[in-house]
Design brief:
This protein has 97 residues and is an alpha+beta fold. It is built from 4 helices and 4 strands.
Amino acid sequence: MNRRKLLYSILKELQDGNEPKQMDYEITYEQWGEIAELIRDEGYAKGVSILYADNSVYFVSLSSAKITMKGIEYLEANSAMARMYKGLKEARDWIKL
């Protein structure tokens, strides 16, 4: 899994008003929690909900998430990926490259 591509895809989907979900990417829930934490902690999006149980990620929701200026700047800084990214329907295969 290419974490940079995964991050790009999630931020792009948020920017487009979509709610990406873990099942869209065929990654483990642990990986989904880690990327959600990164998005939240780096300030790429606000409204990222993460609940923990026994020091593990129990629940992740991006339903209220909105991309921030820092997230937009990330997308712009990685604009080379924009030419290759075809959207959420093809994200599973794209992030594996």
